[in-house]
Amino acid sequence: MQPSNTVEVLYHDHHHWLTGWLRRKLGCPESAADLAQDTFIRVLTARETPTLIEPRAFLTTIAKRVLCNHYRRQDLERAYIDALAQMPEHVAPSEEERAIILQTLMELDQLLDGLAPLVKRAFLLSQLDGLTYAQIGA
Prior knowledge:
The chain is mostly helical. Helices cover 78% and strands 0% of the residues.
């Protein structure tokens, strides 16, 4: 069976179940539908579609990662909105600038998440706290 056919069968057989599983986790049918689609997009864009013995366990694993990213994005958006609320109105960014900044923050978060914990900590201490490399090393 070709990989695209495998994904098609996986989608047909398990999409409804996955959407229901996500709906129970999120309590929001619209978000559940979006994240179910994101899950299948990850399957579709994977380099290789593995041979599946337990397709629901496979989908659950991917959906948990998608769900984790969803929660991280929500937390980041909330923190950004809180920071904007503290800014004087005359210097607040436009809606377009807000969207661009939020997207940039998400990309930075993903890049930082890919770093080893000590490297990430050193980077943040340098960039956010203004410490020198000697201070970080100590």
